[in-house]
Design a protein that fits this description.
About 10% of the residues lie in helices and about 45% in strands. It is built from 1 helix and 9 strands, in the order αβββββββββ.
């Protein structure tokens, strides 16, 4: 069987388009369990986030509790100090999660992470929490990143 070089190239390029799970640290998922965290595009560790670019975040998790709502809270950690990081949509129920959240069900939290042009070039840790009605973490993950020009 003869395989077309174009087909081989398309298959190879298609593999590059898929999201790769990143290595994350669970920083206190009390009311849920994280399965995977994907940052797209992110081909290196730490993730290199280019200024002026939007990144897709997809965190899959299983909830241990029922909750009417969920709220995302994001921080950048520099030298151990947590600095609040605004995101376009903090409501988890508008970020791929069908609310109310049901205990024992798996969800995919999907959102965007904008890296503004005015951010400094710096290495830091991103801490991302999704909180339930009781302000407990459905998930909490941290990944090292580097903001680059």
């Amino acid at each position: 069987m003869l395989v077309s070089p174009v087909l081989v190239a398309l298959v190879a390029l298609g593999g590059l388009c898929g999201a790769e799970p990143v290595k994350f640290f669970d920083c206190g998922s009390k009311d849920g369990k994280i399965a995977t965290v994907d940052v797209t595009p992110c081909s290196t560790e730490p993730c290199q986030l280019r200024k002026g670019t939007n990144y897709s975040i997809n965190a899959t998790f299983t909830s241990y509790v029922a909750s009417q709502a969920s709220t995302a809270v994001v921080h950048g950690i520099l030298t151990g100090i947590e600095i609040p990081f605004p995101i376009p949509e903090a409501d988890g129920c508008k970020s791929g999660i069908s609310c109310p959240i049901v205990s024992g069900k798996s969800y995919s939290y999907v959102t965007k992470l904008p890296v503004k042009s005015e951010y400094p070039c710096i290495e830091l840790v991103v801490k991302w929490e999704l909180r339930d009605d009781g302000k407990n973490n459905l998930f909490c993950w941290e990944i090292p990143v580097e903001i680059v020009s």
